[in-house]
Amino acid sequence: MIRDFGLQEFWFLITATRWTLVLTIAASILGGILGLIVALARVSVFPWLRATAAAYITVVQGIPALILLFLSYYGLSKAGYDLSPIVAASISLSIYASGYLGDIWRGAIQSVPLQQWEASTSLALTRGQQYRHIILPQSIRIALPPTVGFLVQLVKNTSVVSIVGVVELARSGQLINNATFQPFRVFIVVATIYFAICYPLSVASKHFEVKFNAYRAS
Amino acid sequence: MPIVQVEDLRKSFGPLEVLKGVSLTVERGQVVALLGRSGSGKSTLLRCLNGLEQIKSGRIEIAGHKMSYSAAALRDLRKDVGIVFQSFNLFPHMSVLQNVALAPRLSKGLQKSEAEGIALEMLSKVGLLEKQGAYPDQLSGGQQQRVAIARSLAMQPKVMLFDEVTSSLDPELTQEVLVVMERLAADGMTMLLVTHEMEFARKVATTTVFMHQGLVHEAGSSNAIFAEPQTKEFRQFLGNAA
Amino acid sequence: MFDLQFAPVIASLPALLQGLWLTVKLSFIAIVCGASLGLIVAMLRSMAPPKLRWPANIYVELIRNTPFLVQLYIIFFGLPSFGVKVTAVEAGLLAMTINLGAYSTEIFRAGIDSIHRSQIEAAQALALTPLQIFRHIVLKPAVQKVWPSLVSQFVLIMLTSSVCSFISVEELSGAANTIQSATFRSFETYIIAGLMYLALAIVLKVGLFAAGSYIFGRRTRKPLLPASAMTSPILKDAQS
Q1: In chain A, which residue's Cα lies nearest the Cα of C194?
Q2: What's domain B4-91+158-241's architecture?
Q3: Chains A and B in direct contact, meaning 3 or more beta-carbon pairs closer than 8 angstroms
Q4: Interface pTM (ipTM) of the complex?
């Protein structure tokens, strides 16, 4: 029986959006923590740590999110962990996020002006104190625009996790399409919902960019 | 028939009126030095003469062109009125020869070989023939400015405008540019120069115009003006500048 | 714990390589078409008066704020409902081109905007037309400035081609899907596929940077960093 795309179908999309948001938030938090570790490793004084982090970033940025998803999903099950699709998807997206956030934050740390390092060193702060009180707070300002910009990428990449069985927004759209055979209508609505989530983030990112540049100019 | 005629020129940047009714006449072959403090409007006046700034009111007629701001009219005017900028503005991705030969080829529609011929001629005029294959970042400031002069000359303009062309140069490099300009003047080019080089103005310019706060305060033959400054502002300016 | 058997996957190597080849072809066409589209839109936008720039802006924002998968679905499933028949490969190519077009037009715009006004003025003073100015004065320096960003974006669209597997295009990911369902060696299959993508990404990056050196001649300039982006000597070794 072919249904028509009506309010009920629209509501199905909205409830699926819930999972899109859950995945994004989970991956942001987990990926953020992991990404911070990667970033700090990437700028550490130990060459082997830097190299490992560099390799990690290169690999994560050199393969599609989809493949990363498969690898972590099947890798985890091979390691004996039987995880629900949403948990597995969250973990893979976290790894994906950490590879990009780590690189962004590494760039932000390295963008903190030389003088700040010199000033804090001459105050006899330990490296840890330098990071905590001087460097990281300033990196945050530099990192904010690209980080928010990456969140947009993250939201969009949740669309591929349907392949491991999570019925998030894109997958639910496909299901509705299979039931209604009104692809244009369905996917335009799906696109609109994504746009409603992503566009404010994009605007925020640009806003921070301008604000940060104004700060630097002054 | 004067080659440059400016009547009651007014120009504002937003609320700030920079030119408050400037009038000027230049005959063919004259070399006019425009002097004045920063903010006196001298650079703005110069840029109005080739349409880089749009006037609010007044009349400009230069090299036979009545000032009109349609794109085609401006392009026509700029084939006859050349300008050299303070910051040279050479095209960094092109060699010296390419920089100079570009406009004859594209604006005047000459063949590549013909354009390059003119370019080489102009480059030897400014004494940089051997640098034709170099790129701007390989040249000193003085050399870059001379290339910029050659680039303007390649269009064979009737009037040349010089906007503080030695102001960003180190003192040692200023001389080589002034020598080229002196030679141009001797060859009969009509030139208007905004400059801080008092000695040069006194020596080379036939006419000197002193501007102050958007108006012409003094204008006349250089010898007369420098010998007997009429207005107190000019006296002050000379006192400071000397 | 980890019982890895690569043999069945190695046996299916030809199929994987075929998928890789399709990925290469798709990416190449998408890069050429998408970059051209992006450049044309950027040029039109730069020459148009500010009030007429909104179509390009809408195009960019729509593409950049929706997932590629949804764009793909709209083309593949949506176009037939208007009577336009597309194969999966055609839909994939079209989606990739439109997608790259939006991202690259933003990158080109940044490059174009970075050309200093004085350069334009100098060209205007030489009586060049706006089109001549764009072609001879603006284009090459602008693209040179943003070449690293462009290269990253090209690599990204190559990786994005994997999503075309969702509509059964047998590029590398699609081939990997087929093989792993036949051999049941999923992890191993995706490791090989991942390595192939990684190799392709590296080759693409190195190749495009080399091409950049060649096109932009004599010396490649590093991407312009903000004034405060000086690295500390402590971190100097960290920059590899």
Answers
A1: A63
A2: 3-Layer(aba) Sandwich (3.40)
A3: no
A4: 0.89
